[in-house]
Specification:
The protein is of the alpha+beta class and 189 residues long. The chain is built from 6 helices and 5 strands; from the N terminus they run ααααβββαββα. The chain is globular, with a radius of gyration of 17 Å. The structure holds iron/sulfur cluster (SF4).
Length: 189
């Protein structure tokens, strides 16, 4: 199959999340220029701003100033939108909100770290990350210097993957069973 490397994708938190889930996915997205269409279960998992407001107030209290679905344009012209950005005099907290509980959420935490990294690098320092699933805080940690280094390294790895002709190392696993990208996946062709 002839691949097409899209110019419109650059390493970003969303691609980073996919990369952590499976390194083959960002390679497929950028080389075949395809993205999984929105499914019924994805639509079902979407949350509106009223839902976000209510869970953030429950989780963080109402003392912070909170911007919802805040969109930022970065130097390279790309944009990121965070579910909620809570600011007080002492700290800035990025909050990601999911409707459903997931047993494994490392990829969602990495996406959060990606947002914090990009905002911090663009002069909006982030101090804390919060992930909420099914109205419960499942992750709440300071965003440290070491996280900046980790995300920088991951973004470099991701860039290497999407700029390479060769597919990255990946392994067949249980995840493949429900993976929409399997139809394009070199491990399954
Ligand atoms: S089918 Fe499996 S290896 Fe291929 S992209 Fe999906 S999860 Fe990754």
């Amino acid at each position: 199959m002839v691949y097409q490397l899209s110019q419109s994708y650059s390493p970003c938190p969303w691609l980073l999340k996919e990369y952590i889930y499976c390194p083959m996915i960002p390679w497929i997205i950028t080389h075949y220029n395809v993205v999984e269409p929105v499914t019924v279960s994805m639509e079902d998992g979407q949350v509106d701003i009223d839902y976000k407001r209510s869970v953030v107030e429950e989780a963080l209290g109402s003392t912070n100033h909170v911007d919802y679905e805040k969109r930022f344009t970065l130097e390279n012209g790309s944009t990121i939108t965070v579910d909620a950005l809570a600011s007080s005099r002492r700290e800035r907290v990025v909050v990601e909100i999911k409707r459903y509980r997931r047993k494994h959420y490392r990829h969602q935490v990495t996406q959060l770290k990606g947002y914090a990294y990009l905002l911090t690098k663009h002069g909006i320092p982030v101090h804390k990350l919060v992930l909420i699933q099914d109205r419960k805080v499942v992750y709440s940690k300071r965003f440290e210097e070491i996280d900046l280094e980790t995300v920088a390294d991951l973004l470099k790895d991701l860039e290497r993957v999407i700029n390479s002709d060769k597919p990255p190392k990946a392994y067949r696993s249980r995840k493949c069973i429900s993976c929409w990208y399997r139809r394009y996946c070199p491990l399954w062709s």
